[in-house]
Amino acid sequence: MARKILEVIIAMLSKKQYLDMFLKMQRIRDVDTKLNKLVRRGFVQGMTHFSVGEEAASVGAIQGLTDQDIIFSNHRGHGQTIAKGIDIPAMFAELAGKATGSSKGRGGSMHLANLEKGNYGTNGIVGGGYALAVGAALTQQYDNTGNIVVAFSGDSATNEGSFHESVNLAAVWNLPVIFFIINNRYGISTDINYSTKISHLYLRADAYGIPGHYVEDGNDVIAVYEKMQEVIDYVRSGNGPALVEVESYRWFGHSTADAGAYRTKEEVDAWKAKDPLKKYRTYLTENKIATDEELDMIEKEVAQEIEDAVKFAQDSPEPELSVAFEDVWVD
Fold first, then answer.
1. HEC secondary structure over the chain
2. N or C: fewer beta carbons within 10 Å in the chain?
3. Is 244 within 8 Å of 202 (Cβ atoms)?
4. Percent of the chain scored above 70 by pLDDT?
5. pLDDT tens digits, one per residue of 2-33
6. What's the CA gap between 193 and 314, in Å, rounded?
7. Cα–Cα distance measured from residue 51 to residue 231, given in angstroms and rounded to the nearest whole number
8. With contact defined as beta carbons under 8 Å apart, do 256 and 47 qualify?
């Protein structure tokens, strides 16, 4: 029965919604590809982590959320930030440390936020977003808002104590929060097989008495979207938290300082052959949802949008020293 309901949900997606997912995936790919070049020219201050290859996981997870639903992400949070609707010029200005940035130049790559769209922040501390997500979920429950919270992380963060403490408390208090794990197989250079004994991370949900869900092909945006629609409905209905694991892969190194020597070229190429954007383009054209010409036009529009955003950031002013201590506290 649940599968039938999901098939109906997918059938009800409009062409605009399908294309919106393609647009967001293309934005993530092009933003991070552009930033990978700009970092080496000194455009971005500080360490930067890219999510090229993981576009379907971010977009599929977030597409079914509302602007009032809240997300927390990690150091590799550009994808979720874009999928949640941040203004692209403001994002580039933020990465460049400019006054016109989404956080007035204070956050940078690892601390992006967009409160108006429900993005309460990426986090440079591994596992640092879990407890914040639980607190936000407690607020939604207490105020009876009907909103839910999603905490994004990689696989290695699930070995942090904060993960277990947060999932346990969320389960005990029956909070409306989803713990969403993008398993890209590596914690910096450490293969997951050297840090975790269990075969799949979603199995950890059993220890806390909550449902665990698994998407083997996290590069299939429709598969991720379907699963998340099921989980979102479960959590929003007051049934408490859930955990979702999707398998994906980052094409680039852990950060701009990582050459990725611990991975073979064959391994990287095998995952690139599972390109989530190409997979989704094929889905759209084969099902006659969109034409190649329409998708090509979106690609061109995104490319121009990014060039305009870079120029906006470059032309924007640096923050004045006089405002350095503003916005330290939340009103």
1. CHHHHHHHHHHHCCHHHHHHHHHHHHHHHHHHHHHHHHHCCCCCCCCCCCCCCCHHHHHHHHCCCCCCCEEECCCCCHHHHHHCCCCHHHHHHHHCCCCCCCCCCCCCHHHCCEHHHCECCCCCCCCCHHHHHHHHHHHHHHHCCCCCEEEEEECHHHHCHHHHHHHHHHHHCCCCEEEEEEECCEECCEEHHHCCCCCCHHHHHHHHCCCEEEECCCCCHHHHHHHHHHHHHHHHHHHCCEEEEEECCCCCCCCCCCCCCCCCHHHHHHHHCCCHHHHHHHHHHHCCCCCHHHHHHHHHHHHHHHHHHHHHHHHCCCCCHHHCCCCCCCC
2. C
3. yes
4. 96
5. 555 455 555 568 999 999 999 999 999 999 99
6. 43
7. 23
8. yes
Residue carrying the six token digits 């759209």: 284
Q: Is 50 exceeded by the pLDDT of residue 1?
A: no
Q: 130-142: per-residue pLDDT in tens?
A: 999 999 999 999 9
Give the phi and the psi of residue 123 in degrees, each rounded to 5.
-145, 125
Tokens of 106: 């204070």
Position 324: which residue type?
A
Nearest residue to 314 via CA among 97, 104, 111, 114: 97
All domains of the chain in start order, with CATH: 2-314 (3.40.50.970)
Answer yes or no: is pLDDT of 274 > 70.
Answer: yes
The predicted model scores a pTM of 0.93
CA distances from 301 to 36, 44, 60 (A): 20, 23, 21
Q: Which residue has the tokens 């999932």?
A: 167
CA distances (Å), 214 to each of 58, 121, 126, 207, 290, in order?
A: 15, 25, 22, 16, 29
Alpha-carbon gap, residue 231 to 239, rounded angstroms: 10
